Amino acid sequence: QVQLVESGGGSVQAGGSLKLSCTASTGSVVAYYMGWFRQSPQNEREAVATISTTGSTTYYADSVKGRFTISRGNAQNTLYLQMNDLKPEDTSMYYCAAYWAYGRLSNKPSDYEYWGQGTQVTVS
What we know:
Blueprint: E1 3-7, E2 10-12, E3 18-26, E4 32-39, E5 46-51, E6 58-60, E7 68-73, E8 78-83, E9 92-100, E10 114-115, E11 119-123
Parallel strand pairs: 2-11
Antiparallel strand pairs: 1-3, 3-8, 4-5, 4-9, 5-6, 7-8, 9-10, 9-11
């Protein structure tokens, strides 16, 4: 069982930056694919960025390419999302998620088994 806890959300002006963190409070995530997803009341949950176990493979949604960077610190059992040049359309609840690594890295929310509670990001 893996429990994920996000932090780092908040309110920022357009053009600003935030760094989200996700720590596995129980269990190790070294052998898990991980990702950041977001969901707003009007939209379905979508993948923002995902990362393989070693970090050698990543996926980014087109809307965040060049602005967001996903990384992981396996020694710290932590996933990060550096968000730069934030836009009002980035406003959403952001979730960290993980699933046991097999096959190709997925960006489908339904493939992810463990989820955090979410952290709100508001860009004005």
